[in-house]
């Protein structure tokens, strides 16, 4: 019979190699998938892993797609480390787009380029507002934040639909559900002439650094993580559970809202029903694959962005459906969870005779399913 | 009066989707497993059910395939959370995301397909009774099946020994293990059964409720079903009642849209989601009562200590 047992100790090498193994396993499953679809697997994997980094314009697109993933992902790091399950980043992203877009479409064409600052702030505020509803309902009524934040995603998307089909529709837009194209001064400035990558990428990196500083170098960040790892310990130490709930939701909401604003005023340039492209959900994968650490999230957002571009390339070059991206993204996290499980447990085949003999007593589990959280808190010498 | 009858019928129809999925989740949660993957399992069920129906023309085969698909995805979920002790939240979410991606992928050839003429169901002898005929006796067989399922589930958890075992596992896995109960196997079985029901619920959407396949067509019903178990305090009868109520909200919303009411359709379409939030907040308010009715080890990982 099969038996799953705890490993006596958790090896650092195994722990660190889990993401690499997961990526490897995803590639293998991906290659099999390509074969099943009747395509050359080498060519398919090349489109996913080589093409997106092989030219300046490809890199620019890579940065453009990684930006919202990184921003939302670092926000979710803070929330998930606080054990606050904000699953509705997609909704906060949409509210950010609505906030920024609503301001951008009213900007007079003569105003200077500074207007992008209040426009993006409006986006962050929109995301915070949407997350604040979740925080208030959890704080006051103990309503489960997973369900509330998710329901609000559907509400946000319907709100966007209402605006672009109704009051905000471009009167000269041939009845298409879209707002006017925003004036050029309301656009996020581009980094290089001729490439679409914009200042949002820089903002996202700054946000990742700020989140890292907050989590690992401030008292508030420490308290938040203690609360996430053990509510009882936090209560004992006098850390406020309410404060970390609100911090977690407002920070992740602001990040997602800013990402929405950057998307609306960057690559999209208007509001339409296609602004919510699923970045809010993909960023959940980004946060977990990045081990809820800002540095890891930078890497995983680039990887996930490659999957997006790879999916698009497979569509245009091989005639495969774009939905391949979602399959690859899900596979990556699934295999990572398996690898993480195998870091802590080993699966052994026991003969029925041996299975009857009690195994030597393994130690108590070393932590919850997010050992990196507890480990980094425990090993951080600052505290 | 007949309009009201049709509204009741439509509410039961819409509620059946939620009741099927929610009953599966109730079984999971009674065993202590919180399944955030239901939305993905429903989508897989929906696409497989539709595809099988397109190829075979058989509704029965469609539901069987959907149940198998939902159960298979649930088995992956179960292997991870029960076998390898993964975080139930994270794993469930991945299953939902993966199910959404995979169902879109599988469903691409089927977006333009239509099913053959849908059968009409009538309970012989009763379908012509005024009001009651239209309200209660012209439904898809699954509408009645889910009522039977609710009764059976209630009996199972309250009166039967295996039901007691499942509840023991969900309330205190360590005590259950000390009694010699196979905690892991019970949880895995509950997860797979729940996944099969989620798959059937998904197929009910794509085969019976709105017979077509559209990407993401489950539209959050998996999440509403999850809220329903809380709303129902983990009691099958209340799950059924809650599902019909939510079905009613959806139907009233659609009626208002069709009735040319002056509110924009998008704002009306928010109603089911908003009412879920409101109900959830109202129910969760009394945290003591929540704690009493909730399976005590819900969402907590368990690994046997030898």
Relative helix content of chain B: over 70%
Q: Report on the biggest sheet of chain A.
A: 2 strands, antiparallel
The global form of chain B is globular
The sequence of SSEs of chain B as H and E is: HHHHHHHHHHHHHH
Q: Give the distance, in angstroms, between the N- and C-terminal Cα atoms of chain B.
A: 64 Å
SS-based class of chain A = mainly alpha
The DSSP helix count of chain B reads: 14
**Helical run tally of chain A:** 15
Provide an overview of this structure.
The complex is a heterodimer of chains A (383) and B (306). With 383 residues, chain A is mainly α. Chain A contains 15 helices and 2 strands. Chain A has helices at residues 12-36, 41-49, 56-81, 89-104, 116-141, 145-165, 200-217, 219-229, 231-237, 241-268, 279-289, 294-318, 324-344, 352-356, 371-379; strands at 2-6, 345-349. Chain A has a two-stranded antiparallel sheet with strand order 1-2. Chain A is globular. Chain A starts with a strand and ends with a helix. By secondary structure, chain B is mostly helical. Helix content of chain B is 72%, strand content 0%. Chain B has helices spanning 2-30, 38-56, 59-83, 88-107, 132-136, 141-159, 161-171, 173-178, 183-209, 221-231, 236-258, 265-269, 271-284, 287-293. In chain B, α2 packs across α9 (183-209) and α6 packs across α7 (161-171). The longest helix of chain B is centred in the N-terminal third of the chain and has 29 residues, at 2-30. Chain B starts with a helix and ends in a 13-residue tail after the last helix. Chains A and B meet through β1, α5, α6, α11 and α13 of A and α3, α4, α10, α12 and α13 of B.
List the topology elements.
The complex is a heterodimer of chains A (383) and B (306).
Chain A: E1 2-6, H1 12-36, H2 41-49, H3 56-81, H4 89-104, H5 116-141, H6 145-165, H7 200-217, H8 219-229, H9 231-237, H10 241-268, H11 279-289, H12 294-318, H13 324-344, E2 345-349, H14 352-356, H15 371-379
Helix pairs in contact in A: 1-2, 1-13, 2-12, 3-7, 3-10, 3-11, 3-12, 4-5, 4-6, 4-10, 4-11, 5-6, 5-10, 7-8, 7-12, 8-9, 8-10, 11-12, 11-13, 12-13
Chain B: H1 2-30, H2 38-56, H3 59-83, H4 88-107, H5 132-136, H6 141-159, H7 161-171, H8 173-178, H9 183-209, H10 221-231, H11 236-258, H12 265-269, H13 271-284, H14 287-293
Helix pairs in contact in B: 1-6, 1-9, 1-10, 1-11, 2-3, 2-4, 2-9, 2-10, 3-4, 3-9, 6-7, 6-11, 7-9, 10-11, 10-13, 11-13
């Amino acid at each position: 019979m099969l038996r799953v047992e705890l490993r006596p100790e958790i090896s650092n090498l195994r722990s660190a190699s889990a993401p690499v193994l997961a990526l490897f396993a995803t590639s293998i499953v991906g290659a099999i998938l390509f074969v099943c679809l009747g395509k050359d697997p080498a060519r398919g994997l090349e489109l996913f892993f080589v093409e997106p980094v092989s030219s300046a314009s490809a890199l620019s697109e890579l940065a453009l797609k990684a930006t919202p993933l990184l921003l939302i992902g670092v926000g979710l790091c803070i929330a998930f480390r606080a054990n606050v399950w904000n699953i509705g980043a997609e909704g906060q992203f949409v509210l950010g787009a609505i906030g920024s877009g609503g301001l951008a479409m009213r900007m007079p064409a003569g105003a200077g380029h500074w207007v992008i600052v209040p426009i993006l702030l409006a986006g962050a505020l929109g995301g915070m507002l949407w997350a604040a509803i979740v925080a208030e309902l959890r704080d006051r009524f103990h309503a489960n934040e997973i369900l509330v934040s998710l329901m609000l995603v559907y509400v946000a998307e319907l709100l966007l639909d209402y605006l672009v089909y109704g009051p905000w529709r471009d009167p000269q837009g041939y009845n298409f559900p879209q707002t006017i194209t925003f004036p050029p001064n309301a656009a996020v400035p581009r980094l290089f002439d001729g490439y679409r990558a914009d200042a949002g990428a820089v903002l996202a990196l700054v946000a990742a650094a700020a989140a890292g500083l907050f989590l690992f170098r401030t008292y508030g960040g420490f308290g938040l993580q203690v609360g996430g790892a053990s509510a009882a310990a936090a209560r004992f130490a006098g850390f406020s559970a309410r404060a970390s709930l609100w911090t977690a939701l407002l920070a992740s909401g602001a990040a997602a809202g800013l990402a929405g604003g950057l998307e609306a005023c960057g690559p999209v340039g208007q509001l339409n029903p296609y602004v919510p492209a699923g970045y809010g959900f993909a960023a959940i994968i980004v946060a977990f694959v990045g081990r809820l650490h800002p540095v890891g999230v930078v890497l995983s957002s680039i990887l996930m962005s490659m999957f997006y571009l790879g999916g698009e390339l497979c569509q245009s070059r091989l005639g495969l459906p774009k939905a391949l991206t979602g399959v690859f993204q899900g596979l990556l996290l699934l295999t990572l969870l398996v690898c993480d499980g195998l870091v802590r447990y080993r699966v052994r085949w026991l003969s029925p005779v041996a299975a009857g003999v009690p195994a030597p007593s393994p130690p108590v589990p070393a932590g919850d399913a997010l050992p990196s959280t507890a480990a980094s808190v425990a090993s951080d010498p600052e505290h | 009066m007949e309009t009201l009858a049709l509204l009741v019928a439509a509410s039961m129809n819409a509620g059946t989707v939620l009741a099927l999925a929610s009953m599966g989740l109730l079984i999971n949660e009674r065993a202590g497993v919180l399944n955030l993957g239901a939305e993905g399992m429903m989508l897989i069920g929906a696409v497989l059910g539709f595809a099988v129906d397109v190829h075979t023309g058989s509704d029965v085969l469609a539901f069987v395939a959907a149940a198998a698909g939902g159960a298979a995805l649930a088995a992956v979920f179960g292997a991870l959370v029960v076998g390898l002790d993964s975080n139930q939240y994270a794993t469930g979410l991945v299953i939902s995301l993966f199910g959404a991606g995979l169902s879109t992928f599988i469903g691409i050839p089927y977006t333009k397909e239509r099913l053959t003429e849908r059968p009409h169901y009538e309970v012989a002898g009763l379908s012509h009774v005024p009001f009651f005929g239209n309200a209660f006796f012209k439904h898809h067989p699954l509408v009645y099946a889910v009522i039977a399922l609710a009764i059976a589930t209630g009996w199972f958890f309250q009166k039967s020994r295996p039901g007691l075992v499942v509840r023991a596992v969900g309330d205190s896995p360590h005590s259950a293990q000390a009694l010699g109960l196979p905690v892991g196997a019970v949880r895995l079985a509950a997860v797979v059964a729940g996944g099969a029901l989620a798959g059937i619920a998904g197929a009910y959407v794509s085969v019976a409720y709105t017979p077509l396949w559209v990407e993401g067509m489950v539209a959050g019903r998996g999440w509403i079903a999850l809220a329903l178990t809380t709303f129902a305090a983990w009691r099958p009868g209340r799950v059924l009642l809650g599902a019909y109520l939510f079905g009613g909200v959806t139907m009233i919303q659609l009626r208002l849209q069709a009735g040319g009411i002056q509110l924009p359709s998008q704002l009306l379409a928010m109603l089911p989601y908003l009412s879920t939030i409101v109900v959830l907040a109202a129910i969760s308010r009394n945290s003591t009562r929540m704690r009493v009715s909730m399976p005590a080890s819900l969402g907590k990982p368990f690994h046997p200590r030898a």
